[in-house]
Amino acid sequence: MKAIVAVDLNWAIGCKGRLLISIPEDLKFFKSMTLGKVVVMGRETFESLPGRKPLKDRHNIVLTRTGNYTHDDLTICRSINQLFNELAKFPTEDVFVIGGEKVYNQLLPYCSEAYVTKIEDTFAADTFFPNLDEMEDWQLVAVSDLKFFGDTKYRFTKYVNKRVME
Question: Which of 40, 67, 75, 84 has the greatest count of CB atoms below 10 A from its CB?
Fold first, then answer.
């Protein structure tokens, strides 16, 4: 299982159910990494998607404790155990955790890799991703050249979870 996320300098990921900023190259990267794969998200993240529709050409799984939540085009899991039973049907390397904060916090210990787009700016935010630079189990293994979207600078990075990789 892998995590994929875009963060600002404070490791913020969103505000009021929205992304901090929409960077076209980051969205293309996200799509290229997750197309044909399994994406795991929380209910609020799903509801923030355009049109509240599942991501096309991916198996969408929503982890939620909301008991009456249903959607014809999603797999709904109501517990971590139920999620892991569902994920057993797929190759581990094909599973991407895509948010939000609660789901990242629950599943990050099980992720072997994290693809983090680091935006070199700060934004008003109310949701955050754990700071992998401060976590001894996580190691930065790849950093792209500096990229630009208007005045916004960012880099694509990759971290590995040393505990899961052992």
Answer: 40
- What are 88's two structure tokens? 């057993």
The CATH number assigned to the domain holding 8 equals 3.40.430.10
Structure tokens at 43: 């209910």
- Structural domain boundaries, residue 57: 2-165
Is 46 in a helix, a strand, or coil?
A: helix
Q: What is the token pair recorded at 122?
A: 């700060």
Over residues 16-65, the pLDDT tens digits come to 999 999 999 999 999 999 999 999 999 999 999 999 999 999 999 999 98
Residue 55 is encoded by which pair of tokens? 């991501």
The percent of residues above 70 in pLDDT, for the chain, comes to 99
Contact between 18 and 99 (Cβ < 8 Å): no
Reported as a pLDDT band with limits 50, 70 and 90, residue 70 is confident
DSSP 111-162: -SEEEEEEESS----SEE---GGG-TTEEEEEEPPPEEETTEEEEEEEEEEH
Count of domains forming the chain: 1
Counting other chains too, the contacts that 17-20 makes at CB distance below 8 Å and 24 or more residues apart are 17/44, 17/47, 17/48, 18/48, 20/119, 20/123, 20/125
